Amino acid sequence: MMNVLNKKTVEDIDVKGKKVLVRCDFNVKMEDGVITDDKRIVASLPTVKYLLSQGARVILCSHLGRPKGEFKPEFSLAPVAARLSEYLGFEVKMAKDVVGESAQALASSLQDGECMLIENVRFHAEETKNDPEFSKALASLAEIYVNDAFGSAHRAHSSTTGVADYLPAVSGYLIQKELVYMGGALENPKRPLVAILGGAKVSDKIGVIENLLNKADTVIIGGGMAYTFFVAMGDTIGTSLVELDKVDLAKKLMDDAKAKNVNLLLPVDNVVGLEYDKDTEYKTVDSDDIPDGWMGLDIGPKTRAKFADAIKNAGTVIWNGPMGVSEWEHFAGGTIAVATAIAESGAISIVGGGDSAAAIKKFGFADKMSHISTGGGASLEFLEGKDLPGVCALNDKD
Ligand code: AMP
Prior knowledge:
The protein is of the alpha/beta class. The protein is built from 13 helices and 17 strands. A 6-stranded parallel sheet has the order 5-6-4-1-7-8, with helices on both faces. Helix 1 crosses helix 2, helix 6 runs parallel beside helix 8 and helix 9 packs parallel to helix 10. The longest helix is centred in the first third of the chain and has 15 residues. It is elongated and about 70 Å long. The two termini are 18 Å apart. The relative contact order is 0.13. The model has no long low-confidence stretch (mean pLDDT 96). Adenosine monophosphate binds next to strand 14.
């Protein structure tokens, strides 16, 4: 695996007077052309402001939605340019195209400390094919490339990867933070390293579990995926979620944990419901005592205490996936208990993107975590130990 902690950042390169192409994640939520959530725009500001303060000529780019390779006005980034202008206090000029005449003319007229945005890179089908000619055309707009779109870093597209073949390439602050926290936790964690994995399916997290069994001191398994492990141990699980084709794999993972001396913790009790419904009748039962016709929808109180005990002494915690159906009040207790234990532990805490990040925010723990990853798919692939193309493409420090 590459050394992600050795990648150059915006601070390692002289940008004064240079045209800098910055790949942002402006894939914001919009309704009828109005931005309904601009947190991704706000998140881009530290890198953009830094570059402007250094006298760079900043050319921003991003994808938005899935226009499938053609111009569609509803996927235009023009509303993003308007919102950016409000935040920056001066006009961010909007090009009418991606690499065409408008983008080129605006880019060459840009002065030091000015900023523009080109159109949605996915208006060109070549973008997602990582087409070299398109990458070259993007690169020709600028002299330096900055990638700050972690959520797209697992995709080898022109604007995330290909363009780096033609320009010096460094990370922005958002990607840098992801690499420092997640890379640090995987490569040189403060120990003990406790990994907490939950969510619906084992199949989504096999790679993560396998990789973390090589890194962590303790691996905690909760959520729907735990029941496949119960079947592997010979327990009956009522109507709980199970992936029967993954039972042998669950057995193997348990054997691997033993062989590697990793403490693998599974739920000892569960909150079970009669139906998959937020208002269903529910009760708490031990893991070897799940009655026929009931399904496990959360970890029980003994499990919460057991998991909290392991988390309490952690130096680093990596968490991906809720402990139960945390969207529903009666089955959110396990996820809240784990979040509380992490918050109280004082450990370096890293929450993978997606559902666990959403749960953390909903229950008010966001500011108690050291790092909440902005990438769903990208952070899973990172935790699997895969090299992300958008990160690989960045230049190494000497
Ligand atoms: P993931 O996207 O894999 O992290 O899974 C998140 C989803 O898993 C959430 O929507 C949860 O409702 C669901 N989930 C967690 N625990 C269970 C469970 N015991 N039974 C069914 N679904 C669950």
